[in-house]
């Protein structure tokens, strides 16, 4: 469901985290893999009509970017109760059409009622399936998807059908909650997507980025267009924004990057393009920042993105965690070298796991940091509990949850020092899920 997170009790969140770890018997898929979220039920339609959407999602500004004209044919994919449908219909009237597409007939019933009450014309409800929007081929000028793509059960097939429904000059406006900066922390993790996740999936499906807008408080706005069957841009297409991985862009000389230091919560870079090419540069969670010499290394804890459409250096702040407990955090004068996330697979998988979990914000930084120190440095109870206590976190629960997540990515926690010292914290656990997890590990 797309409902925001609420302040759950600490124990409930620890149980959620422990249950996730306890059922994960295999190492996670490589980063960038994504499990679709469940479709929000029509019973949650009130959430789609909440007054706060005007400030949170700025529908007028989104539609201004699309620049809809009278006579346009638009498809509102995942139209829900019709929040955006009702706003688009007057813009394409009197001769245009808005296909209101949804997989739930109950949603379309609600939408039809609201459209009738508003006295709107040109709206055509369309009952779709999980892998087919059921639209006429080559008929659509614009498609709009607001907070719905992440729910597609069969995204590859659905995107192909969407391509077929677009006109040769057709475009897509895609809105998704951000992963990168924490601005969408109120939304459950499975309903957030990074620019990297979106582009990897849409590029593979034959789309390219035309624009990336970040004016929304907690959402990305992508404008995409299909490429030709051969992979070359269509003749009538708009100029694209090239997409590069940070490590590859550095190696190919497309950008210059300078690490300008770090802190307890992030890494600071400056980046500039070296050629007049509009580009978006992404980095995957787990990207490693090596600090040669005494200062400690850092690891990105979220996917990152930087849009470069002008010359000159741009500051780039990347949320990160310390890798070494005793080494000092790199300062402004320390040099940082960017390494591929794949160079440290255990840290990559751990960072990827945490990016996809909902853990109570008050304890998440401490649990993540402890997990890194267990996985990399094999720290024991004394050092880890001291870190938890310094952050006013229940030490036994924090260490236990961190150990559970380390075990979940395929690192055998029984081979770690913290397992040998489990008598120091397991009896003090207050979360039933963690207790069961450690009891199961004890019996295996």
Task: List the main descriptive attributes of the protein structure presented here.
single chain, 16 strands, Rossmann fold, 3 domains, alpha/beta, seven-stranded mixed β-sheet
Rg, alpha carbons: 24 Å
Going by helix content, strand content and strand pairing, the class is alpha/beta
Portion of residues in beta strands equals: 15-25%
Please give the share of residues in helix: 25-40%
Shape: globular
Structurally, the number of domains stands at 3
Estimate the mean pLDDT confidence: 89
Which stretches are low in confidence, meaning pLDDT under 50 for 5 or more residues running?
A: 1-30
Strand segment count: 16
The order of strands across the largest sheet is 3-2-1-4-5-7-6
What is the count of helical runs? Answer: 15
Give an overview of the whole structure.
With 444 residues, this protein is an alpha/beta fold. It has three domains: 1-26 and 362-444, no CATH class; 31-239, Rossmann fold (3-Layer(aba) Sandwich), CATH 3.40.50; 241-350, no CATH class. Helix content is 33%, strand content 22%. It has 15 helices and 16 strands. The chain has helices at 10-23, 45-48, 53-57, 59-66, 85-92, 105-118, 155-165, 195-204, 246-251, 345-355, 364-377, 381-390, 395-408, 417-420, 432-443, and strands spanning 73-77, 97-102, 123-127, 140-146, 166-177, 207-213, 219-226, 242-245, 255-262, 266-273, 279-283, 288-290, 298-300, 304-308, 314-322, 337-339. The radius of gyration is 24 Å and the shape is globular. Mean pLDDT is 89; it is low at 1-30.
Note the topology:
Blueprint: H1 10-23, H2 45-48, H3 53-57, H4 59-66, E1 73-77, H5 85-92, E2 97-102, H6 105-118, E3 123-127, E4 140-146, H7 155-165, E5 166-177, H8 195-204, E6 207-213, E7 219-226, E8 242-245, H9 246-251, E9 255-262, E10 266-273, E11 279-283, E12 288-290, E13 298-300, E14 304-308, E15 314-322, E16 337-339, H10 345-355, H11 364-377, H12 381-390, H13 395-408, H14 417-420, H15 432-443
Parallel strand pairs: 1-2, 1-4, 2-3, 4-5, 8-11
Antiparallel strand pairs: 5-7, 6-7, 9-10, 10-15, 11-14, 12-13, 12-16, 13-15
Helix pairs in contact: 1-13, 1-15, 10-11, 11-13, 12-13
